[in-house]
Specification:
Number of strands: 0
Number of helices: 5
Largest sheet: none
Distance between the termini: 124 Å
Strand content: under 5%
Region (Disordered): 1-84
Helix content: 40-55%
Mean pLDDT: 73
Biased composition (Polar residues): 1-11
Biased composition (Pro residues): 27-38
Biased composition (Low complexity): 12-26, 39-50
Low-confidence stretches: none
Domain Antitoxin Xre/MbcA/ParS-like toxin-binding: 135-183
Radius of gyration: 47 Å
């Protein structure tokens, strides 16, 4: 049985079969597997080796296509040999942990904001909101209450309740709403 070596780059070879084949001088693309040499029938031990053939004309090689990944592997290596669904689950678990931590921080900030002292403008907005709620309760709905706040009133010296509020006489507007609630016109 003879040792068969690859004759891909140096066919025909003038080296005896026991000598190592010279290394290929041209690099081949990393993605392409080396071409396989056709299987030669085994020579019986009694036959003489063939005479070397004259060198053949060099064959044209296919042009090397550029690697689209710019020298990196086409797919990222999975360094930890973890299945993709398990690594996705790990990412999702990490995101959920971060969301829980952020939710706790947000809740603490909201509680601190609610406990702080209100500024004058914020106090006036709350007072006006409570007055609008009172007007909505007394008059039935917010549309009627909005019309009442902007219309002139006989008991407020022909001024609208909004004008009276701008002057700063909130108590007169509250008294007028209480009169309406109790049915005193």
């Amino acid at each position: 049985m003879s040792t068969q070596r690859s004759t891909w780059m140096n066919w025909p070879s003038s080296l005896p079969e026991s000598a190592p084949a010279p290394a290929a001088t041209s690099p081949r693309p990393p993605a392409a597997p080396p071409p396989r040499a056709p299987a030669a029938p085994a020579q019986p031990a009694a036959q003489q080796p063939r005479a070397p053939l004259p060198p053949a004309a060099p064959t044209a090689r296919a042009p090397v296509t550029p690697n689209p990944s710019l020298g990196r592997p086409a797919t990222p290596p999975n360094a930890f040999n973890v299945p993709a669904h398990q690594s996705n689950n790990a990412v999702l678990a990490d995101l959920a942990r971060q969301a829980r931590a952020a939710r706790g921080e947000l809740q603490a900030a909201q509680e601190a904001f609610a406990r702080r002292a209100l500024g004058l403008y914020e106090t006036l907005r709350i007072v006006d909101d409570s007055l609008v709620q009172l007007g909505t309760h007394v008059l039935g709905n917010s549309v009627i209450a909005a019309a009442w706040f902007s219309s002139r009133n006989h008991h407020l010296n022909q001024r609208s309740p909004l004008e009276v509020l701008m002057v700063g006489d909130r108590e007169a507007v509250v008294n007028e709403l209480m009169r309406l609630e109790h049915g005193v016109y």
